[in-house]
Design brief:
Two copies of one chain form a homodimer. Chain A contains 14 helices and two strands; from the N terminus they run H-H-H-H-E-E-H-H-H-H-H-H-H-H-H-H. By secondary structure, chain A is mainly α. Chain A has one domain: Farnesyl Diphosphate Synthase (Orthogonal Bundle). Chain A has a two-stranded antiparallel sheet with strand order 1-2. Chains A and B meet through helix 2, helix 6, helix 7 and helix 8 of A and helix 2, helix 6, helix 7 and helix 8 of B.
Chain lengths: 294, 294
């Protein structure tokens, strides 16, 4: 029986090893180099780990979830590269390293982001069958990926987030932004794991609800960390929300209220894991995600 | 029996009408508005027309090619929006209108471009079955779209194009840039039509070869037009290549040599249409594409 940390390490290493298969370095391509620079920059790999863990939770072989798990990390990385561009958040530090455009220039960074999105789709298309997914599982997986990254997910979330400093922001608005910008991709990760395990629609819906709750908690936690962190503990520039005059959950509910809301959402997520045979890894993961070191 | 212009109009109108189905306006979404601003900006719709015409050439029902045809136009538009951004070509005029970022700002233009790529995939995923595509046809179509828009297509073409002014450019380099940047998506359009018609692999390969030849001819023609046009006839800023110190086919072969090369490629493309039952529309289209008004 592996400890939580050991199991997390197994999942994380499987995902990181898969990047050399799904996106190998082409020595003649600065584009591939730039894509890999950001994709291999570390990070907790929470989204792909969620995909593998949900696949296991639903009784599947985690190998079948590997292409989609890698794909969600590619899409997450693409959104970070574009988010960091000067015309967006204009960030120069990410995961403790210079952001993509600082190293490769804005034009290549723009193309590298798009390339990672493209490669995410191609990974499911090119490797899905080899890793054990049926045609309909591949189509379902692509649909989940597209929904979470498109108009019903990240992109609309980012537009609303840009407007955050211009409009009167209430709780419903912030919840919608967090759902689109963060929770959609976390829940997609869980659903992709369930799809790879061949889980039924009801179980997929439960994976979705779990991911939405964790995603909201995760984002509120992010708002809290933005207030109380240093660049060293956060790995990126803190205090941005305040500088950009963005309303956060901490503004709306106060620090204590925000922390209570994180707890409420954590309990909700945990309850959605009840009834599965082996929920312990995901229960521990839920608690750690929602109470990240501060 | 329709004339060429009548048939072109039928295809073009079918594609343009489909945009209201595949990407309807959401009154509350500036992102959708911005995506539709560029998608509905007109243009010749050559890529989707090629998809529908190749579907018909292979004996298919053109309705089955409509989602993929719309998808190639969305991807083409996405690449134009990103190409026009200040960090890329910094163009302010496209199809006679202000470019996307001039109207909506860089951040929304960036997201709108990504949104169109996402929506292209979703169109095949969401509407493919309804329009008569099997699961394997949908997967094949997505693979063709991803290849042409990713590392084996537009994105690498754009990186090489950016470097054009920094390196010693010879004919092989330019042919590679043109193949990746332009011909890949034109040939994808033809292959998608063949796939929608249920054509065999040999016919798909012929569609690909046809599209590659037309694409090379089309791009050399573009280089020629860049030298000899006015903003009014071209609908965008001419003379950019010279200002940006980019080597073109006109530089390498001279004006006459470039025109001869267009003719050679046109003949090659036409010969690939021999043996089909009703090639007349595509033969006429080939000649018009490669000899656009100048």
């Amino acid at each position: 029986m592996k400890t939580f940390d050991e199991q997390y390490g197994v999942y994380r290493e499987a995902v990181e090893a898969s990047f050399d298969v799904f996106l190998p370095q082409d020595p003649s391509s600065v584009l591939t180099e730039s894509m890999r620079y950001s994709l291999l920059a570390g990070g907790k790999r929470i989204r792909p780990v969620l995909a593998l863990a949900w696949c296991a939770l639903c009784g599947g072989d985690t190998r079948a979830a590997l292409p989609a798990a890698a794909a969600v990390e590619m899409i997450h990385t693409y959104s970070l590269i574009h988010d960091d561009l000067p015309c967006m958040d204009n960030d120069t530090l990410r995961r403790g390293r210079p952001t993509n455009h600082v190293i490769y220039g804005e034009a290549v960074a723009l193309l590298a982001g798009s390339g990672l999105y493209d490669k995410a789709m191609e990974t499911v298309l090119d490797f899905g069958a080899e890793y054990g997914l049926s045609d309909s599982q591949r189509l379902d997986s692509l649909k989940v990926l597209c929904s979470a990254s498109g108009l019903e997910g990240i992109l609309t979330g980012q537009v609303l987030d840009i407007k955050n400093s211009d409009v009167a922001v209430d709780r419903a608005y912030l919840e919608r932004v967090n759902d689109l910008k963060t929770a959609a991709m976390l829940s997609a990760s869980c659903v992709l794991g369930a799809v790879a395990a061949g889980a039924d629609a009801e179980t997929q819906a439960r994976a979705d609800a779990y991911g939405r709750a964790v995603g909201q908690a995760f984002q509120i936690r992010d708002d809290i960390l933005d207030v109380i962190s240093t660049p060293e503990t956060l790995g990126k520039t803190p205090g941005k929300d305040s500088v950009e005059n963005k309303t956060t959950f901490v503004d709306l509910l106060g620090m204590e209220g925000a922390q209570k809301e994180v707890l409420r959402l954590t309990e909700k997520a945990l309850s959605l894991l009840d009834g599965f045979e082996k929920p312990s890894f995901l229960k521990e993961l839920t608690e750690r995600m929602c109470g990240r070191e501060a």
